[in-house]
Amino acid sequence: MSVRSDIEIAREAKKKPIGEIGTKIDIPHDALMQFGPHKAKLSAEFIDKLKDRKDGKLILVTAISPTAAGEGKTTTTVGLGDGLNRIGKKAVMCLREPSLGPCFGMKGGAAGGGYAQVVPMEDINLHFTGDFHAITSAHSLLSALIDNHIYWGNKLEIDARRISWRRVVDMNDRALRKITNSLGGVANGFPREDGFDITVASEVMAILCLALDLKDLERRLGNIVIGYKRDKTPIRARELDAHGAMTVLLKDALMPNLVQTLENNPAFIHGGPFANIAHGCNSVLATKTALKLADYVITEAGFGADLGAEKFFDIKCRKAGLSPDAVVIVATVRALKMHGGVGKDDLATENASAVAQGCENLLRHIENIKKFGVQPIVAVNKFITDTNDEVSEITKAAEAAGTKAFVCTHWSDGGAGTEDLARHVAEIADSGQSSFKPLYPDDMSLREKVRTIATEIYGAEDIVCDAAVEGQFKELEKGGFGNLPVCMAKTQYSFSTDPTALGAPTGHTVPVRELRLSAGAEFVVVITGQVMTMPGLPRVPAANSICLNDDGQIEGLF
């Protein structure tokens, strides 16, 4: 039996006009700024009118530690949203926008899969409504203003050796990680070391996703620390008069994007910070807006729960005053086999004992979620090769940990494949049993916050910092940034900083390599291990298979 590709399924979708999708959640036509017939932005004026409405229930979808076998977190988020709507609930999904870098790199797309997708799939995976281009432009404007200020006399006395603001581009390009700019003579400025990150790692992206409105956006942009003077005094973007023009570039990008699923249910897709090098959640504005419009809001956090969920709780929920009512942890038989020691080439062979061993990873994530006072539920994203004995190992492990596991077939059956999960999720969310609390208090020292995450969430013995990093901790505390949450930059593949250490390793240490202040986003990025803030392309990039066919249709996105 041939299996149709995601893009083939998406192309056959019977999409409804976006205005009709909006009416399902009481959005009037005049509140939508349309980008063609099937995507639109929601106006700031309409969002402001919603502030006195009661909030719906917030449900987070996270996952076990990702593997090359795939987990299907976005697919499950979409499938659960469709499932809730099928059982008569008023539900909206909130997702991140895909980055061009991974689309052309290894992932190939990030709009769900099979019969649990958001559409128009090609638009969402490529330029969409231009948000990422606006973010890249705003970031690049600040970069240009910094070097221009130095060129015209450097009134602020910026120390070129201590400029922390790097450049960005929305593409995986390892050649740009370290560069020297302003070469070519006096007319081009003063040469200095520089570098590029991917746009989804930009502080502007994080700020857009945490801002409550345009005023808050402008305030945060002005607070960006771009570097330091020789006496280590911080210099902010507002001292360069950059924040006003940056806000202008981001005015429309701040407005959430409305699209639909294959089953014509509403979905907000807005913002897209990475989860291993940024905080990995869609925008606060989209999530809070959805909570005013629906009874249930299903959102996702990037990668495994040790990264995405922890940051969702400790950064997004803390800063936005959100309180999740339930958490769904996505797991697959195939991924748990890999955590149990099975190689990728042997995943098709039944191996229930490897699944049982791999469930150590799932159990660690379940235990961690409970530390935040929220009840986890396991969604088994079923593949056609999974056997009953293998699935049974996951169910038994979940029950032993005090939760329930539901086999989901949304990839092949859409919302019909998640109805049992949807009923239980709604029951948990409505029960009022959630007692959410962040992992650590604001007034804990930065170093102790990092250590708390490492020991409580990663299962580490301790953190390791050299003298330079210890000095950074002290400087940030002295500068008044000690009350900020920390954003851990760590490999997504393991609880440790070693991507090959699968399962649930313990006894390891977490080496802290560097601290980066994001004063506008209001968190401190903690770089651990060998995490790169500018990814590279694989040996055979997904871009090699993406093209237009003879009918002018896009092929190769998945």
CATH topology of the largest domain: Rossmann fold
Q: Detail the poorly predicted runs.
A: none
Question: How does the overall form come out from the CA principal axes?
Answer: globular
How confident overall, as mean pLDDT?
A: 95
Number of domains: 3
Q: What structural class is derived from the secondary structure elements?
A: alpha/beta
The portion of residues assigned to helices is 25-40%
Strand composition percent: 15-25%
Q: From the 3D coordinates, which CATH architecture of the largest domain would you assign?
A: 3-Layer(aba) Sandwich
CATH homologous superfamily annotation of the largest domain:
P-loop containing nucleotide triphosphate hydrolases
Number of strands: 25
Note the total helix count: 19
How far is it from the N-terminal to the C-terminal residue, by CA? 19 Å
Largest sheet: 12 strands, mixed
Please render the helix and strand layout as text.
Layout: H1 6-11, H2 18-23, E1 32-34, E2 40-42, H3 44-49, E3 57-63, H4 73-86, E4 91-95, H5 100-104, E5 112-113, E6 116-119, H6 121-125, H7 131-151, E7 158-163, E8 167-169, E9 179-181, E10 192-194, E11 196-198, H8 203-210, H9 214-223, E12 225-229, E13 234-236, H10 243-250, E14 257-261, E15 266-269, H11 284-293, E16 296-300, H12 305-320, E17 326-331, H13 333-339, H14 352-370, E18 376-381, H15 388-400, E19 405-408, H16 410-413, H17 419-431, H18 446-456, E20 462-465, H19 467-478, E21 486-489, E22 509-518, E23 523-528, E24 547-548, E25 554-555
